[in-house]
Structures are given as C-alpha cells and as structure tokens.
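Re: that chain you flagged

S.,

Sorry for the slow reply, it's been a week of failed gels. I finally had a moment to sit down with the sequence you sent. For the record, here it is as I used it:
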Amino acid sequence: MKKLEKYLPLLVLIAFLPILVFRDFSISNELRYLSIADEALRNGHIFTFTNNGLPYADKPPLYLWIVMLGKLVFGTHYMWFIGLFSLVPALLIMRIMRNWIIADCTLPEKEWRLTSQLMLITCGMFLGLNIFVRMDTLMCLFILLALRTFFRMYQGRGNHKKQSLLFGLWVFLAVFTKGPVGILMPLFCPLVFLLFKREGRTFFRYWNARVWAVLLLLCGLWFLMVYLEGGTEYLDNLLFHQTRDRAVNAFHHKKPFYYYLVQIWPCLAPYSLLLIGVWLAALAKRRFTSDTEHFWSITVLTTFVMLSAVSGKLAVYLAPIIPFLVFLVVSLLRKFQKSVWINATVALPALLFAAALPALFYLANYNEMTYVGQVLF
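Prediction finished late last night. Pasting the structure tokens below so you have them in one place:
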C-alpha cells in the first residue's frame, strides 16, 4: 500500500499517456487555441491575441504561451506536450491535497488517503480536464496553492512574510491563467472562513500589503504590456468586457441561477450520490471536527454560491471545488456508520469502472465509426 501511494502519480501518468499520444485535437476548443497561438507567433504578439484576425481577449496569456512554446520548440503542435500541462497540474493537485491531509492529520490511514486520490483523479469533470487541452486544471492548481498558503498562514506555519509573497504570486498566476475567478476564490473563501471562526478582523493580516503589492505590481506590468501592444481598446476589452460584462447580464454562457444545481451531478459522476449525500449529511449532523474540514466545506459552499450569483456559467467553472469536496467527503466517511445507502453509492462507481473496459472493446469492435473506436483503437 505504501509503495502504491508513493508511485501513484507515475502510474496515473502512464495510464493517461496513450490518450495524450494517440488522440487528435478537438475541433471546438483545442484547434482554436492552436490557431490563436499561430496567429500570435506570425504577428509577433505576446500579450494580445487575435482569432481569425479578430481581437481575442477572452483568456489571459499563460496557457497560450505554453501552446506557443511547443510550436517554437518542436516546429509543430503535439498533443502530448500541450496535454501534459493539463495532466501534470492534476497530478500536483492530487499530491498537494495528500500532503495537506498528512500535515493536518485529517486522514492518517494510508488506505483512506489512497482512496481520496483515486477518487479525485477519476471524478467526472476532473477526469475530463486531465485529457482535454484547457487551462482550467492549471488554474485549479494555482488556486489550491493560494488557499493552502493562506491556511498555512492561519495555522502559523512557516515565515509569514515569505508566505504572504507566495500567496500574492499564486493568486496572480491563477488570474493570469484563466481570469477573475483566480482572485475571487482566494479572496472570498478565506473571508467567509474567518467570519465563521469569528476572526473576521484578522482578514487583512493575510490579505496584507505584501500580497496586494505583488498583485498590483505583476498585474500592472501585464496591463502595461497589453496597452503598449494592443492599445486602449484591447485593454478595455480585457479588463471590463471580459469581467464585468460576463458577471452581470452576461453576453456569453448566460444561464439561470440554479444552473449549477443541475450540472453538479454529472460533474461529480460517478461519485455524485456519495459526495453530495455525505457532505449534506455531515452539514446537517455537524460532523466537521477540524479547521481543515471546516475550511474545505466553506470553500466548496462559498465558491458554489459565488459562481451561481454570476450571470455567465459553464459546468467547467465548478472544477476548483472538486478536490476539496472529494478529500472532505473521504475524511467524513470514517465518521458515518455503514448503511445500505452508503454501500450502494460506493458500489455503483465500482460497477461502472468494472464495466468500462469491456464497453470500450465492444464499441471499438462493433461500431468502428464511433469516436472511441477511431481514437483509442
């Protein structure tokens, strides 16, 4: 068990490599990123982008820089190279959460730690983000690092000045990867946690001058380069149209407030009943016994409410809460007596995974025109 847990990231990487090597780029998102990166390289742009000649300020530069780097190094785009920047962050998230529960003694037993890591890496939305070329997993990594750094400061671990600088850096990198949600989670989740602990007056001890200095300095340099390269119109598009206009009466992906109440179920499949059921039962019965469990639960609830309040919605926006919810529920499971309901919610995913491989072979043999048959076989 100890060796399996130690080498789990390597085993997961090996398991995903065939998909990274043999899968082609999807038409909807992945080919668009390649086209945008190619246009930027042709135009000599670094901070401003175009899509078929039209300004593209939808995404910050970091992930597009990775795509551009692959083209510069290899002369063409390779799925395995770009895909690694989705898969490796997922493996790091899995490892950071493991180290978090070890440091806080939340899950002392190796069996439970291994279970939580395997559930995370095979959980619906999180599993999909490990395969497809998107910047969401990278953003989740930086958000996790920011929240973990805050919690270390809250517990008085490490040098506070150094942790403050790191906190600001992780928040900036989250914003520089995907946009405003990169700052909203590290801002509001600690605030709600501190209010819950009746320590709201200490908020600026963590969001202190050093954190703001790092953010303002790095964001200022970024916006200055955008202005010099793309002018006032592009900067206005980046700062206001892509933030304010998405949040209020969104021009893109506008959905009702209850949208995530529906989407959360497929996002957490095949563990939806287990994760949501145990979490709600723990809330009702007050089974949270540590600051870590309280913080993870508050992070999940605060983020869910915050995202629901924003006009523009996509199911993928729920990705940052999945690591916290999975590890929290595995921690809570030990506090519940076994029941028919819990056994059923555990058995269902096991049956689905057991049937997955035979189902893939069936699809490949009897329907060669399917996407699965073409890509995997």
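What I noticed first: The first strand starts at residue 50 and ends at 51.

Talk soon,
D.
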